[in-house]
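Run log, item B.
One chain of 427 residues. Sequence copied directly from the ordering sheet:
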Amino acid sequence: MPAMLNASSLPEESIDSVPAGEGAGVDLFDDLAVIPPSAPSRQVLMRRLADVVCLPESRINAFERAVTADLLVEMLRESDVAERARVAKRLSILAELPNSLVRLLLVDEADVARPLIEDGEALSDADLNYCARHGKFAHRQMLAARKGLSSLLSEVLVEGEEIPVIETLLKNGKATLSQQALETIVAMSQNEPSLIPLLMRRPELRPSSAYVLFWWSPAEVRKVILSRFGVNREIMQDMASDVFAMAAKEKWQDAMSRKALQFIERRQRNREALKKSPYESLEAAIADAAKSGMTRKMAEEIAYMSGIKPSTGAKILRDAGGEGLAVLCKATGLSRKALKALWKALRRPLRTAEGHIHPQLAEVLIVYDMLAVDRAQTVLRYWNWSLSSALTHVMLKSLARGEDMDLDGLSVPQRAAMLAFAQDLKS
């Protein structure tokens, strides 16, 4: 950094001391008097003003710095890029930055703004927000890579839905993503598969978003989601063990408590549905479907006996990948044989032309084997909670009509349901 100015180093000459012969015919106070941008006096003066702005707080007060900065701003507007970049680089190391000067340089050419965006530690979120909203694509790309980027700025960058910017943001391990920004990116990943592996590396990714991301992820990512986010419910079950009896005495009158306890309880199959079913067991219903083919009525029956809503069951049965079937079967205690029967009932190929097990079924069986029952139940119940209970008829109608809804006003499971069902209902 250039040496700081002190009082003795400032030029003693004033306008009054200019010799009479020099500058004859030019009124120095006339706004119309044009000094060429390349004039040495202008360059020297800008550097001197920059020196003053860069003086430490012990040498200059805030008002003096602000007035000097305002004057420097006017001169920088007509200076060349190299000079503006030089000033920006000097300002980037300051602990206190004049607002007017920062705002000018932050949205300047990318080479001018770069040192401030990348190294300016004194920049406030307000300054960076201004840069994100009023700068160009290059500015947002640099912001996305900035160290220590706050969750607020991440949201602003995500709002623009510029894929390269979002990819840079997701790769930035020093940035913080808010839940809202993350959910927005998850929604975008339906049409931008390149975002999926980057999302999977983010520490902010939570089960609620991962379970939704599952539906449009490739097979390898689905395995990771089920392995990493298939949490158990032992602690919840222990803490709520006595609440089940309390709720039963109240005859399960509180709907919200009932839904929460249904999520926590160990039993997955619905005993009441089994009593009303024409089939002796869930296995019998699947075996019948394997013989005669899956019908809508059979699908609903299997869903009810599995302890899930028909809409959740339909989502799982329609899923092209098939890993959802592994979750359903493991969660309900069904065997590998039953899983194969369910696969057959959906008219999916069991074997290749050479007689080997079909690769897709083989992958689904691997998922089945790697899942623990309790973890599979957690995933299945969250799907059921978000894809059915949380999705009201008003939301369903809005989705079917293609209407936009305010996601900020929705609960986490409602937002998950909106994302997961949006494509199904519009297709």
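Observations after the first pass:
- The chain is about 60% helix and 0% strand.
- The radius of gyration is 32 Å.
Flagged for discussion on Thursday.
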